[in-house]
Amino acid sequence: MKNFIWDFDGTLFNTYPATINAMIKTLEEYGIKEDEKKIYDYTRKTLTYAIESLIKEHNLPREFIEKFWENSNNIPPHKNKPFEDAIKCCKLIKQNKKNNFIITHRDKRTLFNILNYYEATDIFIEIVSEANGFELKPSPESFLYLINKYNLKKEETLGIGDRELDILAGKNSGIKTCFMNHDLLNKTYEADFVINNFNEFIKKFC
Questions:
Q1: Which of 18, 59, 152, 199 matches a 20 to 30 Å C-alpha distance to 182?
Q2: pTM of the model
Q3: Is the dihedral of CA 191, 172, 206, 14 positive or negative?
């Protein structure tokens, strides 16, 4: 493989703990206590799914969304840590004259705050965030944008993510896919490769 299109949250960076804490904090502002694992399971589907499910279950006003994003956007960068060897892996890819990209639904400001904090921004050829305005995964639109812009050969391009929608987006764009199974789930999402940690990834692809 020569080209690596990474998801960000839950794939390169373990942002789930801080996001879940922001959700719990917001719920507590409404006098609600909720199970952390339940929120995690919701969030693994999509953050929008988690928010909408909690609003429906607890009959929360729509302003809950704004309050959550306020709490989430105020998370300091050091609270969102990269997975072990994630940055090392991407640096090795770059050193070996291969290409890193990011496609994420995260907002541009917090995304670059985190990457800049860990001095990781320049490892990536291009970083696609919600600010680009593409259809959300599993739509292949953002993937096809990178493929066409950089003339990436699909057979040399790997899409990597930790959720089914990441894998579907890669498949829908015609590239190979890799499920980053950090939680050792008994799932594959029919990805071409299943990798449990970055040490494994480095041995296989770097």
A1: 152
A2: 0.96
A3: negative
**CATH class (in words) of the domain with range 16-78:** mainly alpha
SS3 call for 21: helix
Q: Where are the alpha helices (DSSP H) in the chain?
A: 16-29, 36-45, 47-58, 63-73, 86-95, 108-117, 141-149, 164-173, 198-205
- The residue whose two tokens read 């066409």 is 148
Domain 3-14+80-205: homologous superfamily in CATH: HAD superfamily/HAD-like (3.40.50.1000)
* Number of helices followed by number of strands (H, E) in the chain: 9, 8
SS3 of residue 10 by DSSP: coil
User: Is 37:191 a contact under the CB 8 Å cutoff?
Assistant: no
Domain positions in the chain are: 3-14+80-205, 16-78
| Residue 188: C-alpha distances to residues 40, 136, 169, 193 (Å) | 19, 21, 15, 8
